[in-house]
Please model this.
Amino acid sequence: MAKRQMNRPAGMPSREQVIEFIQSSDKPAGKREIAKAFGLKGQEKIRLKKLLKDMAEEGLIDGKKTAYHRMGGVPKVTVLRVVAIEDGEPIGEPDNWSPEAPGKPPRITIKELKGRGGKRAPALKRGDRVLARTEEQDSGWVAFPIKKLPARTEGMMGVVELDRAGKAWLAPVDKRVRQSAPISDVGEAEEGQLVIAERTGNSDRAGVKVVEVIGDPLAPKSFSLIAIAKHGIPNVFPDGVHSEAAQAAELKLSKEKREDLRHLPIVAIDPADARDHDDAIWAEPDGQGGFNALVAIADVSFYVRPGSLLDKEARKRGNSVYFPDRVVPMLPEILSADVCSLREDEDRAAMACHLHINGEGKVTSFRFTRALVRIHHNIPYEDAQAAVDSGNPPEYLANLWDAWRALAAARAAREPLDLDLPERRVLLNEDGVIEEIAVRERLDAHRVVEDFMIAANVAAAKALEAKSAPVVYRVHDTPSREKLIALREYMATLGKTLALGQVIKPSLFNAMLKELTEDSEKAQVMEAVLRSQMQAYYGPANAGHFGLALASYAHFTSPIRRYADLLVHRALVDAYKLEQPKPGGSLPETSGLSEKDAASLQEIADQISQTERRAMEAERDTIDRYVAAWLSGRVGEVFETRITGVQGFGFFATIVGLGGDGLVPVSTLGGEYFRHDEAAQSLIGVDTGTSYSAGDRVKLKLAESNALTGALKFEPVDEDGNSLAQRGDRNDYNRRGAGGPKKGKFKTGKRGRPGNIRHQGKRK
Model:
């Protein structure tokens, strides 16, 4: 590198010389490195800063002042963030890729890290960051990691612990992190407090310093704060967004280009504790065996306009995130819970989807308008169901149920994927303390709303297709051949046949499940079918929705909480000429889809697909912590559980009727040796043939429950309730060198050098 600098002419570089340098540099090339390479000092550095800014504006380079790269290219050395695992290989994207850059960020296959002695380093997971050398090959971009980088500050959260010597450690709150980190600067934090920290150096041994004290980690409502910080979820609106939201909330509703539907008894059926109401429905018989129906959706596009501060923040968030104790909304509360929300007896702006449903439940026609609506009632699901079950429901509910029965018949004929997957619900009292954790009851009222929403979503996709307009589809791909082969091999271990020489449809999986009569076997196969499915995502290219057995599907019905729906609304505004009169003030004039957004739908869709997955992980982590807290007083009890996954090191099980996934290490299964049958998803004892398979119901004792990480640990028991781990020499062997007893409330294990590893340093 020094030689190259000596041969490079001194003085201000040209644009071509800057590009040549950042492309050939063997380390990240920022403003400092460029100035050093060309020997720039004083005023020349100021001129360089302006040159780099001009080059960025001209589209020649991209990145940050600490690491530039050629626009559309990839630096030779850069930081990559793992965004997916495909066929076992990590896929990364440049961590500093600008969301304003044209085109998608390149997807780069990351070759596995090698540890010392040629051994494999721990596998990379989604969200990890690595410094890597990149290379463009015929098959595409590949990267060779130099080192794994520490997680960003928002993920460094933990509890301050003191060991016997008084040294401070950061005990992790992420169950995937096994080791505590030494704290070099504890600041104002005290033992037992939840804190946010950042690393003080590049090495794990350098330790961390406390940058913010959160407080009591087990206090009510702390669990959602942990998830927000860990996953980096934006939860504070920037300056200007609230004031712009207040200005938008003052927009006057006009009857011009709005259909007045305030005379219809439209109802919004929602959870009893719902704070925002996106959708409302209405139906009546058409006198010919069918129904005229209406799905009214909050007209968020009227208030949140493209290019506004509100719009930029909503896109960054991608969706609202729902925790048991709070909601992190996509939009400020004045809009999400007030002006946009379809409240009872209040005039509201709506996007109206008019449907005609024939006697067989098929939607024969549809149209979209902007409307004025006045919600007749906001009804909780349970109350709507009780009214219908009474046998004498009000007419508007009776009509809805009759129309739904037709839609349900058409849905059954379509045969979408039918998996009965329970959903956990955490109920808190006013102080944020857990009152109950139970599986959410599934009522016909839920199905009524769901089928009306599906009908409107299909209509939105088809309406945009009819105008050749841009569509953000909700895509659910057919299972990959690799996953289907794995499923076939698994079914063979159960004596079942899965024929792959046919068009794969959801009905194939439904038929498999219907043939099973034993509950344990059915649960077992249902888990396997679920694992075979692809993850749904957003995109402008239509590939259908496999799970719903639909050729075209777009999310239209929840624009208060999903950015994808807002984009679909804007596209409908343009396609069907539904633009409203220009607003006053500084708000953007139009509410349709901007040309810039229409040209970059793929990039936007990729981003909101990522924020959706982030929200799902954060919500699941928080539920796990609440469940662990709920169970922490029941350690030692024996529960009825169902095995949900099997690995060579043990199996995972969940408590029936409650949830809460926990690990059963193979070392706790007694003295017998167990082999892992990957195809059968089983652990099988080599002496007795005892097996533990996915879907099996087993009685397990709760051995540990860590509310901070959400981690549970179970142990199998014999008929007398004694742990199998107490028997057999094999288990004693497996425990050697595992460290002494845990000390401290949140410790994850003994720190320091394990006792069975000899000191390699200089003798004293």
